[in-house]
Design goal:
It is built from eleven helices and eleven strands. By secondary structure, it is α/β, with parallel strands linked by helices. The chain has two domains: 1-30 and 163-307, Alpha-Beta Barrel (TIM Barrel), CATH 3.20.20; 36-162, TIM Barrel. The chain has an eight-stranded parallel barrel, surrounded by seven helices. A two-stranded antiparallel ribbon has the order 5-6. Helix 2 runs parallel beside helix 3 (76-89), helix 3 (76-89) crosses helix 5 (118-134) and helix 6 (171-180) packs across helix 7. It is globular and about 60 Å long.
Length: 308
């Protein structure tokens, strides 16, 4: 039976609280700590790779993941340098999740990147990053990036390279995952669509002549646990509506993992049956309640999945 793994997606807190929660996540047995990524957003966010670097010295086992890095907003050569350094400093623990983004066009404007080029830039950028991670010297000639005989050192610790997980749910993202990804991370989908998406990824990989052996099938899970479904749902809708500046009320019963521990366990089980092997649990709650939610997730979900 395929082992189910669990990451923990942390909200931003004042630094010492952030570090304390990160240490506790590792102690509780989670497999990874994840953060999101935006240059500009509706709410304050730490820069993703800087935040992961801050965890490298205070943890020793957990993987450190970004879910997902908006690669189009950065020059891929700089991204390759930063991520290579982060993999070295963490002892080979980086998970480099990459996505297109686009829900906040103003951050593309601020970075001088045409919004309609973001997909093409991500596709090419992934190849640039991998080339620089692996080759010494490296050369590349693409639409957006060209160089000859360049070496970025030190190289990542992980061999042949840190895993690149592709985020998204569009057909373009699924094609990219099949052609280029070491894993895939979905969000805001139902189990039926999740299964169908994996079939599309498998077809894209086959068309590209790629094997999906070792491919990670992930899901960013917006989860709120509580004493009953109704009270947990209210929190889920309120917090996500504020985070994304849109009404999440109609989405709760379709896409949320919400309710008592037993209800949440059953909902996660449907995704596991659809093929998910890696849940990134994002506790949707007041920041002050996040630590308690993480404790509940570890006791009621992670431990029970790992024991089954």
């Amino acid at each position: 039976m395929t082992q189910i793994r669990f990451g923990c997606f942390l909200a931003p807190h004042p630094p010492q609280e952030q570090f304390a929660i990160a240490r506790r996540v590792e102690a509780l047995g989670f497999d990874s700590i994840f953060t999101g990524d935006h240059v500009s957003f509706h709410n304050p966010l730490y820069e993703s790779l800087t935040l992961l670097a801050s965890y490298a010295g205070i943890t020793s086992r957990v993987k450190l993941g970004v879910g997902v890095y908006l690669l189009a907003l950065r020059h891929p050569t700089i991204a390759a340098k930063i991520t290579s350094t982060l993999d070295v400093l963490s002892g080979g623990r980086l998970i480099f999740g990459v996505g297109v983004g686009g829900e906040n066009p103003k951050e593309f404007e601020a970075c001088g990147i045409p919004h309609n080029e973001r997909g093409a830039r991500v596709t090419e950028g992934i190849d640039v990053v991998r080339r620089l991670w692996k080759d010494s010297p490296a050369s590349f000639k693409g639409r957006f990036t060209q160089f000859e005989g360049v070496s970025i050192d030190p190289k990542p610790v992980q061999k042949p390279a840190p895993p690149i997980w592709i985020g998204g749910r569009s057909d373009a993202a699924l094609q990219r995952a099949g052609r280029q990804g070491d894993g895939w991370v979905s969000y805001v989908v139902q189990p039926e669509r999740y299964k169908q998406s994996l079939e599309k990824i498998t077809a894209a990989a086959a068309a590209a002549g790629r094997s999906l052996e070792g491919f990670t099938r992930g899901h960013l899970t917006f989860i709120t646990m509580g004493k009953d479904y109704e009270s947990a749902e209210r929190v889920w809708v309120e917090k996500l509506s504020k985070r994304y500046a849109q009404d999440f009320g109609p989405l709760a019963r379709k896409y949320g993992v919400i309710g008592t521990p037993a209800q949440c366990l059953e909902q996660l089980g449907r995704f596991a049956e659809a093929g998910c092997t890696y849940f990134i649990l994002d506790a949707i709650c007041d920041p002050a309640a996040e630590a308690e939610q993480i404790e509940m997730m570890a006791a009621e979900l992670v431990s029970k999945f790992k024991a089954s």
